Structures are given as C-alpha cells and as structure tokens.
Amino acid sequence: ARDKIDLAEKLDAALDHMDRGLVILDHAGAARFWNQRFAAIFNLPQAAGDASVTARKVRLWILRSGLLRAANAEALVQMIATGDVEGPFDLPLRDGRIIEISMRHLSQGLICLVEDVTAARHEVARINRLARTDALTGLSNRMNFEEAGTIRLRRDLAVGHGALMCCLDLDGFKRINDTYGHPVGDRLLQLVADRLKGASGHDALV
After folding, report:
1. How many helices and strands in the chain, by DSSP H and E?
2. Residue 99, SS3 per DSSP
C-alpha cells in the first residue's frame, strides 16, 4: 500500500512539473484533475481532483481572469466540454501570449493539453518576415513581391479592377558608391525606400 502511495505522489509531482498544462475531464464535463501549469496559464485556483469543478465553472474562472474574450472563452470551454476539436490549435490571450491547445479522447473522458507557444510563434513570424524582407531597406524582397504581387493581381483582376506597376532606377548610384563609399550608398537606399513608402498608398506593395 505504501508503494502505491509513493507511486501516486511521484506521478502527481511529475504531472505538476510538466512544461504543458493538463486537465482531465470526465464524460459529464467535470474537471477531475489539472496540474499546476494549467492553473498558472489561466490564473486558476488550485482545485485538482474536485469533482464539483465543472467546465462551466472553469469558464467563469477564465472569464474573470480577463485573459480571454467572452466569445473565445465560451468556445474554448465548449470544445473542452464536448471534445469536438482535437487540435492542436492556437488561441491568443489578451496579455499577448499565444497558447496551443490539443485534446485527446480517453475511455473515461477527455484530456486537454495546453502549452505557451508565444516565443516559438514569434520566432516563426520573425523568420518568415526576414525571408520576405530586404534587410537593408525593410522593403519587400523579390520572393515576397512575386508571391504578394501575384495574389494582388489575381484579386484585382477577379473583381474587374486595374493595377499599376512602376519600376524605378537610381541613376548614377554606382558613382555614389565609388565616390563616397558603400555606407553612404546604403543610407541613400534607405532614404529612397522611406520616401517610396511614405508616398505610396496603404495598399501599395513597394
């Protein structure tokens, strides 16, 4: 009996030290268990294993935390209660964090895993932005121009709108580089890029 107690304590400790939040619900929608990480992500009180904690009560706690808009909280709890979506899917919080939620059906109910993926998502966005942006000027590079330009042309043509494309060249730019050096030439390119962005409409692709 003592071995079983020790094993249960070790299991509880392992679950509470997981990087991801975990909540287990029965078929009635009651939260049978959640770990400390799940409570910390949503600022919930510690009430693990309390059979009276229903999905509706979890919704109220999440709403009171102010982390989710009412519609998102309602949808989240509905998904947790019914297990309609297994995920994973991202859910933005009001404090700027992004959490990833995935669900797995069990014979006795449902297990829901929650992970804070804010840093990972921001890094992916940063890499995608760098891959489509000229590092010196901040303008779209050729890859982004081809992708976004094609999408815009198709969109405009589909609704019968015209499109205008202008190509600009800097006369004598090589002479500036040769005379004043590449740092001055780089600065000139940045100034020209800023002027083009300032002179273009909000829907223009420079």
Report:
1. 8, 5
2. strand
Distance CA 40, CA 19 (A): 11
Q: Give residue-wise pLDDT tens across range 33-55.
A: 788 888 888 877 765 455 566 76
Contacts of 14 (CB under 8 A, 6+ apart): none
Q: What torsion, rounded to 10 degrees, do the Cα atoms 94, 47, 60, 51 define?
A: 140
Q: Residue holding tokens 């268990």?
A: 33
Contacts of 115 (CB under 8 A, 6+ apart): 19, 20, 21, 99, 100
pTM tops 0.70, yes or no: no
Structure tokens at 172: 């004598």
Q: Report the alpha-carbon distance of residue 83 to residue 27 in Å, rounded.
A: 10
